[in-house]
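DM from R.C. (forwarded with permission)

"hey, sorry to bug you on a friday — could you get me a structure for this? deadline for the figure draft is monday and I only need the backbone to look sensible"
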Amino acid sequence: MTQVSLKPALQYGKLAIATPVVLAPMAGITNTAFRRLCREFGGGLFVSEMVTSRALVERTEESLRLVGHHESEDIRSVQLYGVDPKTISEAVTMLVAENRADHIDLNFGCPVPKVTRKGGGAALPWKSDLFSDIVNAAVKAAGEIPLTVKMRKGIDADHLTYLDAGKAARDAGVTAIALHGRTASDYYSGNADWDSIAKLRESLPDVQVLGNGDIWSAGDAIRMMRETGVDGVVVGRGCLGRPWLFGDLQAAFDEYLRDPNSEAAINPIQPSLGQVGQAFKRHAELLVEFFESEMHACRDIRKHVAWYFKGYPVGGEFRAALAQVESLSHMDEILSTLDGDQPYPGAEAEGPRGRLGGAKVCSLPENWLNSRTLDSKASADLLEAEIGVSGG
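My reply, with the result:
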């Protein structure tokens, strides 16, 4: 990869994003509570969980809750998942007319088999006519609200779509395009292909391009900027159990934006065990407010235990107890057993987290790869690709 000159500022319509970092939508993770927690550490754009356009148009209770924002969120960012231009248009129209969003993102990157086997998610851009119709319909419905697209490289190494999909999105008038440097078949395995991100950046000089994949630290983010020339980075799994990563990112970008060639050392936040416990408790308190239920919040925070305490010498008994926490007072009892002065464990607390798993054959509808255009059979399959509330 070669270093190139950079334009590091993000401008989404009238929205100026001072720190060119986007929190990737993650189903069951990036709810209002987690977004607020991350914002307490650093700046950027913080996107909601994915919500299906059909559920939103049908005004299901859960979909309306997912697109809700706390009054402190100055940019209300919503990610939509859908497979039908008309329904997507109706969902975007609803968000705009009811003043529910300041930014809308379309997801074409979900690799989950239950989605791709019906032609949705990362499989959809293969049908280039459908992809173009959806993006054009959404941009038209959004009006002055900035609309962006997030996608993967394609279905597999033999069926790449990111270059033509990127050009179609640019031509439709999107504000920015984010590329995860993996195919659907890659799932979350191996290393993200940053060369593909650089190639997309080079092929689309007239639209903002963001890179996603393997941003585990602020150093990774700056390296991606320098090596690919992107306008910003998208952070997903790297912040699981590490909301302070956004503090690292803001500090690193403050220096980088001042001088892109600066070699100043990046001094990451290295929380003690006590500080991790405090962040975990704060997360739980915000979840109580979000769910309006202490019991629901405690059930939800359980999945975060392994991420927060990764690498810290707390023992299996502590982890098991916290994974069964029933109330905030119960949580206080468990956390009180920690030696809060235990220092940051270093590399053991860093690196990959969240979804992993090896590469796999992408599940697709029958004969999906036979044509780049949508036929009646494929269209019928797609009707089942948007069942539920979340695209993940």
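R.C.: lifesaver. DSSP finds 16 helices and twelve strands in the chain.
me: no worries. The two ends are 32 Å apart (CA to CA).
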